[in-house]
Amino acid sequence: MWNMRVAILGCGYVGLELGRRLTAAGHEVVGVRRSEAGAAAIERAGFDAIRADVTDAEALTAVPAVDTVVYAASAGERGVEPARTVYVTGLQTAIDHFGGRDEPPSRFVYTSSTGVYGDHEGAWVDETTPLDPETERERVLVEAERLALSRPAEYGIDGSVVRFAGLYGPDRYRIERYLTGPVTEGYLNVIHRDDAAGTVAYLLEHDLGRDEVVLAVDDEPVSRWTFADWLADECGVERPSKVARPDQKGSVDEETSAEEETDASRRLRADKRCSNAKLRELGYDLTYPTFREGYRETIGAYRAGE
Hints:
Layout: E1 5-9, H1 13-24, E2 28-33, H2 36-45, E3 48-51, E4 68-71, H3 80-99, E5 107-113, E6 124-125, H4 136-150, E7 158-164, E8 166-168, H5 175-180, E9 183-184, E10 187-188, E11 190-192, H6 193-205, E12 213-216, E13 222-223, H7 224-235, E14 242-243, H8 263-269, E15 273-274, H9 277-281, H10 291-294, H11 296-303
Parallel strand pairs: 1-2, 1-4, 2-3, 4-5, 5-7, 6-15, 7-12, 8-11, 9-14
Antiparallel strand pairs: 10-13
Helix pairs in contact: 1-6, 3-4
């Protein structure tokens, strides 16, 4: 296996785990965060940290020469403008900066969201499903994906998009919101943090997914009502109350908020089932194939009163 030099821009929840995995496999990794606290978290994870704002090309000069750039920055704030600043302006700045170097990377990976799909009324979606954004935030997300696939090619770089479903895992299980209710009907599409990072690492180490979109989601989209009842039973508590899904079409994924309406109403209207057939065909073996395996540890902690 060849040793890669990888820069992870916006090295947060998934990026830290990705960096840990790549470092353990013998690759050279540098994580980039804007804040001092973020840089400290990278160092605790065991690899090099650089403080830089992804929207500042001059600041990115501090990042050493790399073979691959993973753009995993998040907006951090709600609303269209913060999203556009990070997902479009920052992404373009990073692509142009690294593409303009004397020694540019060969690959640029952008981590996106299943929020690009919007509402499909429970139907299955995959990488071939046409994207038809209905809101400004959706249009920003879709614009970022198109930028990530097209602009690197102007510099002879292969662009890739890894489209994450709702992320969960350490510090993000959020079981109380399902145990207390009310729970709105519709499908959950999720992926454990470790498998989100594992997907990116797998694609990089096996040189797969260049100039493509890969949907990163587990094996089993599940009804929120079914999930909530299962979780309550496993935790040994009463099943929560249920409410019907709003009639209006929505636009964003389970873990994505929008400015036009409340986070909850927007999320609960976005109903679809995401397929991981392509990810499976590429050969990735999920550590947590379904929510059952992924929530086992936190359920044990809940029952133990931890």
